[in-house]
Recover the amino acids of this structure.
């Protein structure tokens, strides 16, 4: 489980924290190693999707297995259109100018979008990793842990919602 974060290009240049946004992504897949590339799928109507399409950069903060369910719900069940998700969260501005969630994270990746794929209700973003850091040796959280141990649910707009998880 991870939090994908970004901001629009102009606002990122002005460092306006009120316009950062992030959301929970239940999966992140590595698709290349030289250079390292990853993919993430986000609902088209999400503010994070909108910001990534405009800015062409995003960060991925990999959540610790110890992350409280409440923290995940904070990023997964509230819209950045009506609530500042970074207001009370520990974060930093990464080398690409995007917010990087540090709280409950074992590490992060910063990515530049090299391509995207339209998948009906979702956009799959392909990102080239331009920066990364390991923050902790704590185990990362998997979706299985979130669903089975924390008894977490997913929003109806999540890519995995249809599978009945």
């Amino acid at each position: 489980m991870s939090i994908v974060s970004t901001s629009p290009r102009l606002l990122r240049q002005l460092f306006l924290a009120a316009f950062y946004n992030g959301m929970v992504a239940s999966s992140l897949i590595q698709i290349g190693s030289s250079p390292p590339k990853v993919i993430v799928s986000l609902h088209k109507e999400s503010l994070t999707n909108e910001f990534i399409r405009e800015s062409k950069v995003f960060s991925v903060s990999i959540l610790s297995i110890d992350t409280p369910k409440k923290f995940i719900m904070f990023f997964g069940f509230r819209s950045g259109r009506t609530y500042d998700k970074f207001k009370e969260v520990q974060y930093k501005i990464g080398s690409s100018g995007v917010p990087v969630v540090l709280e409950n994270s074992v590490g992060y990746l910063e990515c530049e979008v090299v391509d995207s794929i339209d998948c009906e209700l979702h956009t799959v973003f392909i990102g080239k990793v331009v920066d990364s850091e390991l923050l902790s040796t704590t185990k990362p959280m998997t979706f299985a842990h979130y669903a089975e141990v924390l008894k977490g649910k997913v929003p109806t707009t999540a890519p995995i919602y249809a599978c009945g998880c």
